[in-house]
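User: Teach me something about this protein's shape.
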Amino acid sequence: MSEPEDLARARAIHEAGDYVLLREVAGPLARSEDPAVRAEAEALLRKVEIDPGAKWAGLATLLVLLAITWWYVVR
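Assistant: First, the predicted structure itself:
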């Protein structure tokens, strides 16, 4: 496949919601020599990144759970 065909496939995969496959297809395209293809692939990959706020919320939840567990065990 050529890069434009792969890019069209990546867009279709994004529309279908298969983000794991999207990362596999768009990853090599993000390292393309063509700046337009690279920019489009990077834009698609940015759309499926994990939200940094969600990472912090997950970490905070884990810390609260550990604190509650520790408190329960100590008391």
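Now, about its shape. DSSP finds four helices and no strands in the chain. The two ends are 64 Å apart (CA to CA). If you'd like, I can walk through any region in more detail.
User: That's plenty for now, thanks!
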